[in-house]
Amino acid sequence: MKGIGGRRGPEGYVGELYYRQYRSEVEDLGELMRLVEEELSEPADRVVYTFRYFVIEWPHLAFLVFPSTESRIPIGTIVCKQDDHRGRTNRGYIAMLSVDRGWRRRGIASRLIRMAIDEMTRRGAHEIVLETECDNSTSIALYESLGFMREKRLARFYSNGKDA
Ligand SMILES: CC(C)(COP(=O)(O)OP(=O)(O)OC[C@H]1O[C@@H](n2cnc3c(N)ncnc32)[C@H](O)[C@@H]1OP(=O)(O)O)[C@@H](O)C(=O)NCCC(=O)NCCS
User: Fold this and answer.
1) Domain positions in the chain
2) With a 6 A CB cut-off, is 136 part of the ligand 1 pocket?
3) Residue nearest atom 1 of ligand 1, based on CA coordinates
4) Which residue of 41, 66, 108, 157 lies most exposed, with the fewest beta carbons within 10 A?
């Protein structure tokens, strides 16, 4: 797997951690959903629906990270899509991002985001966008640390009534 970027170990590895693209619903769906459902505020049924929407069309833009190649339990995931935005730009979109609580502040989310951006850029993305809850200071700090800029506030964007 190419495009991990920055400090690198052998292909696919960063230190002991093994990063890879999403493979299949049978192999990855359950664990990916567990990671996402644990942390995101959207209702589970919506997460399943949303998840399938993304990985069926853009399986190459979903990534998982494992503590080792032998492990079947991922500790982080990112799910994205990429399409033409109003006929004007090729837009990459980060839909879901989650890292297991026990593995945070080790650069895993940053690495997953960079991998997704590399893949979207390789496939012609002009811009990468995402939404996050307006009070998710962790996520905002993370994306700002990677150079993302705030563009819009979306009122009551989430089903819990929060702005994005
Ligand atoms: C947000 C989340 C994915 C970050 O994962 P992570 O692997 O811990 O992030 P990283 O280690 O790559 O952090 C990179 C940078 O982001 C910022 N950051 C991350 N967590 C932070 C925190 N708790 N407080 C302040 N800044 C933080 C820091 O700038 C950090 O760099 P540093 O550790 O050198 O200071 C993780 O906390 C998570 O899964 N949260 C719940 C789900 C969520 O909010 N997803 C995003 C919704 S869009």
Assistant:
1) 13-130
2) yes
3) 139
4) 41
Q: E-strand spans in the chain? A: 13-14, 17-21, 62-66, 76-85, 89-99, 127-130
Task: Count other C-beta atoms under 10 Å from residue 121's C-beta.
Answer: 15
99 lines ligand 1 (CB under 6 A): yes
15 to each of 4, 85, 134, how far by Cα in Å?
A: 12, 37, 33
Three-state secondary structure call for residue 62: strand
What is the per-residue pLDDT across 40-62, written as a single tens digit (0 to 9) for each? 666 666 667 888 999 999 999 99
DSSP-derived secondary structure for 78-108: EEEEEEEETTTEEEEEEEEEEE-GGG-SSSH
User: How far apart are the CA of 142 and the centre of ligand 1, in A?
Assistant: 5
* pLDDT for the residue numbered 27: 95
Q: Which CATH architecture has domain 13-130?
A: 3-Layer(aba) Sandwich (3.40)
Going by CA atoms, what residue is nearest to atom 30 of ligand 1?
142
pLDDT at 5: 45
Pocket test for ligand 1, best of 99, 128, 130, 138 (most atoms within 8 A of CB): 138
pLDDT band at residue 93, thresholds of 50, 70 and 90? very high
pLDDT of residue 2: 38
